UniProtKB/TrEMBL annotation:
Keyword annotations of the record: Cell membrane, Membrane, Transmembrane, Transmembrane helix, Transport
Keyword field contains Heme: no
Record field: transmembrane: 35-57, 108-134, 146-165, 177-198, 229-251, 285-309
Membrane topology summary: Multi-pass membrane protein
Source organism: Roseobacter fucihabitans
Cellular compartment(s): Cell membrane
This protein's name: Glutathione transport system permease protein GsiD
């Protein structure tokens, strides 16, 4: 009798999703790009340091009970003349460890930047889909508002929105709501580029066969936009979001440096730079240098990663 098992076809092993992702063209391009690897590693390290700041920071710089004014203006890696304590990156005028303040400040900068970009992306993608798919007066109103906003610098728009929102906020809640007002201000100043890109892509996609087929089977406009058109216009949106993250972090630092951003009770990197700038010419250079270098490294890493992502997702460059 013939062996039945010999005639049974053997199914090839199903590759895991992780293996499929590692073998993709996207992963291959990432592994072949030293700039992408270094920038992604830097961004990941800084994000982890910010998230786990309470565990990594040797001190809680914003706990008044743990501060010692005698440690003020301690130079990096030099024992304090009064207490004998040594701090890696020195201390500021209030005796706060600069390394710890950078970790906590980076949390605020990353949170504000990521939340502002997410808000701008949701608003811009929604308005871009409506303008591109519906057309008519809806498109005219949305795009004319976008054109008017583009005539003003984004930082001025953010300052105007921040000032108006802070003005209508009760005084007792201003410090508590300052971070959220800052997110809304930056987000409202940055939605235009998402809307313009999504509108252009939607104008192309809505005339394709799969959209016409969805209309023939009775799909509504909302379902067509969300389930059919939106997945096909997300690639450029992700690239814009990555690049906008660096711009949002810089915008937050600029507003905080000008004194209209994060409150002193929740200082970001921009606030720390503003504080350090006041002591630069008196010899305490480290109070400004290290927060500024951290902001530069963070913005540059995110920018380089966004540039690589734009090239990797561009089919014309493959």
């Amino acid at each position: 009798m013939a062996d039945i098992s010999q005639n049974t076809p053997v199914k090839p092993e199903e590759r895991s999703r992780l293996r499929v992702a590692l073998d993709s063209d996207f992963a291959y391009q990432f592994k072949k790009s030293p700039v992408a690897i270094v920038s992604a590693t830097m961004v990941l390290i800084m994000m982890l340091c910010a998230v786990f700041a309470p565990l990594i920071a040797p001190y809680n710089p914003f706990d008044p009970g743990s501060l010692n004014l005698m440690n003020g203006f301690s130079a990096p890696m030099e024992p304090n003349a009064f207490t004998g304590e040594t701090f890696w990156l020195g201390t500021d005028d209030q005796g706060r460890d600069v390394f710890s303040t950078i970790l906590y400040g980076m949390r605020i900068s990353l949170f504000v930047g990521a939340a502002a970009v997410l808000f701008a992306m949701v608003l811009g993608v929604t308005l871009g889909l409506l303008a591109g798919y519906l057309g008519g007066w809806v498109e005219t109103i949305i795009m004319r508002v976008a054109d008017v906003q583009l005539t003003f610098p984004a930082i001025l728009v953010a300052m105007l929105i921040f000032g108006v929102a802070k003005g209508i906020t009760p005084v007792e809640y201003r410090d508590q709501m300052a971070i959220w007002v800052l997110i809304i201000a930056i987000g409202l100043s940055d939605w235009v580029q998402f809307a313009r890109v999504v509108r252009g892509a939607t104008l192309v996609e809505k005339n394709k066969e799969y959209v016409q087929a969805a209309r023939l089977i009775g799909r509504g406009s909302g379902a067509i936009m969300l389930r059919h058109i939106l997945p096909n216009v997300l690639s450029p949106v992700l690239v814009i979001a990555t690049i906008s993250l660096a711009l949002a972090i810089i915008a937050e630092a600029t507003l905080s440096f000008l004194g209209v951003g994060a409150p002193p009770t929740q200082p970001s990197l921009g606030t720390l730079i503003r504080i350090g700038q006041g002591f630069l010419f008196s010899g305490e250079w480290w109070i400004l240098l290290f927060p500024a270098a951290t902001l530069l490294a963070l913005a540059l890493s995110v920018n380089l990663l966004g540039d690589w992502l734009r090239d990797a997702l561009n089919p014309r460059l493959r």
